[in-house]
Amino acid sequence: MRLFVALVTTFAASSALLLAQDEEPPPNFILIYCDDLGYGDVGCFGSEKHRTPRIDSLATEGMRLTSFYSTSGVCTPSRSSLMTGCYPRRVNMHQSAQGEWVLFPVARKGLNPGEITVAEVLRSRGYATACVGKWHLGDQPPFLPTRQGFQSYLGIPYSNDMGARQRKKNPPLPLMRDERVIDAPVKQDTLTKRYTDEAIRFITENRERPFFLYLPHTFPHLPLYASESFLGKSANGRYGDSVEEIDWSTGRILDKLTELKLDRRTVVMFASDNGAASRAGGSNAPLRGHKGSTWEGGMRVPCVVRWPGVVPAGVECDAVTSTIDVLPTFAAISGAQAPTDRVIDGKDISPLLRGDSGAVSPHGAFFYYFKDQLQAVRHGRWKLHLARTEKKKELPVRLYDLDRDIAESTDVAAAHPDVVARIQALAEGCRGDLGDRGLRGAHQRPAGIMEDPGQLTLLGR
């Protein structure tokens, strides 16, 4: 919303004055977001291959969210939800303008600048904001992080496999500082360290004011890279090397918070954009499926939240939560106002994070989309895969009791026709709201479109 963006600077200045007068300033937020990290890829979620002591310490000192969902099995749609609090179809980011499952370089499409991101919400409360890492919500100037609420940006604008060799029109893989390419092709084995150094610089420079750091790592998305200090050191090849370097990065950030005495007033959230791919060493165990699917392994992701003194330590929460909940939750915790002029699908889950007695999932249903197709619905303990045609094969409805069968191995639809009917009714309501395949939803909003997109190069557009 242009009016919202225009008011941010003025409101932020007045908010800073108010914050100076408050006895307890709102907490900082650090959101560490991995690319294609599987449910079973870190120690606190069962990995026996990867050494992740610093990520595991977040679980020891905080809360594991064991039914935390991305809204998509792939990058662009999932990130649109994280930023806006909405299902991808709500903001028309469920697929590219050409119908592909993610955005590619020189894309016409991007996150509409009229959407209100979590960064914009927090800036209205006086927060400093930075994005460090992979963006993947549009590579044209109107769609870049610096136009979506982030005051600074360092990172690659899309996936690390989208360099000049992938497609003819792709430029060399660019590393950007704000809206300028500073290195191309970027040396990928330096990325995790460069991101970490930038994150620590931002934290240090903003230690006297509330800040929001969004750190979307490039890895372990393919192709896999790790710096010399980590290459060949894990028990799981380059995949494990990249994961263990992310753990090191997390540790450096946590140590800096402790050094600056910011740890007790900083919310640290660690998650992944979707499940691990079906190759290269990632694990979604004990879940079925992988990246790109609507099985649990494609969309249920590891998530840990630490906030000493507020989030109880060493506990597990199995309530259904999602990336769409980040915006309304951060808004509630910070005292900011979430958007009220549009539909926001996410809910404030801070009662769950605090461990409040009687707190339950705010979601009566969670909807699993693949591109433009609604494929499954979760309702409490039940998950219904809807009937559909896939690769010329007719797939019937299939019902799973996730409390007893997290691996989705036993279809119990025949034994629970009432549950099937109830969830099918929820699916119909979703279709009317968000759409399904060629059916447009009543409350969808347009994505941004650039009619004449250009390449991001060292020489500019």
Q: Write the CATH architecture name of the largest domain.
A: 3-Layer(aba) Sandwich
The proportion of strand residues reads 15-25%
Q: What's the CATH first level of the largest domain?
A: Alpha Beta
| Count of the domains | 2
Shape: globular
User: What's the arrangement of strands in the largest beta sheet?
Assistant: 8-7-6-5-9-1-10-11-2-12
Please identify the oligomeric state.
single chain
The main β sheet shows up as: 10 strands, mixed
The CATH superfamily label of the largest domain reads Alkaline Phosphatase, subunit A
User: Roughly how many Å apart are the termini?
Assistant: 26 Å
The CATH topology name of the largest domain reads Alkaline Phosphatase, subunit A
Number of strands: 22
Structural class: alpha/beta
The stretches of 5 or more residues where confidence is low (pLDDT under 50) are: 1-22
The overall pLDDT, averaged over residues, is: 94
Helix content: 25-40%
